[in-house]
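User: I've been trying to design a sequence by hand for this structure and keep getting stuck. Would you show me what you'd pick, starting by listing the structure so we're on the same page?

Assistant: Good idea, let's start from the same input. This is the structure you sent:
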């Protein structure tokens, strides 16, 4: 059940990002079918990565039962799926805020400030 919830959240965020990107392109007169196609394929790739992480979690858990290391395998698999889920979620939320800042000029101040803070904390975590 947890995998279905994770996948639904990722799919929902991907759709929201795609739609806000489409609205942004319309508002800025930069609508392009090649960018839309690339964006759609990018979202499909994110969903495939999330499916792979969930499948890896199930596979590691099954191997753990086979080798009598259930607890270790449950932790390792869950960490993998949750890490991918958190990364994709943060990436999509930042992208949605970036799109919203371009769509609504009145929101640019707080939205861009929030995006800068999120990107800054994301870069600090990588190092």
């Amino acid at each position: 059940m947890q995998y279905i919830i994770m996948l639904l959240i990722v799919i929902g965020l991907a759709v929201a990002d795609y739609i806000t990107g489409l609205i942004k392109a319309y508002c800025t007169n930069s609508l392009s079918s090649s960018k839309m196609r690339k964006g759609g394929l990018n979202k499909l790739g994110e969903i495939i990565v999330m499916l792979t992480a969930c499948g890896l979690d199930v596979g590691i858990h099954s191997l753990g039962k086979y080798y009598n290391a259930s607890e270790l395998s449950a932790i390792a698999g869950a960490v993998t799926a949750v890490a991918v889920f958190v990364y994709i979620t943060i990436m999509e939320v930042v992208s949605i805020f970036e799109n919203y800042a371009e769509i609504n000029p009145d929101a640019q101040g707080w939205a861009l400030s929030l995006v800068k803070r999120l990107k800054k904390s994301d870069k600090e975590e990588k190092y």
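That's my pick for every position. To get oriented when you compare it with your attempt: The CA atoms of residues 98 and 115 lie 7 Å apart. Residues 2-126 form one domain.
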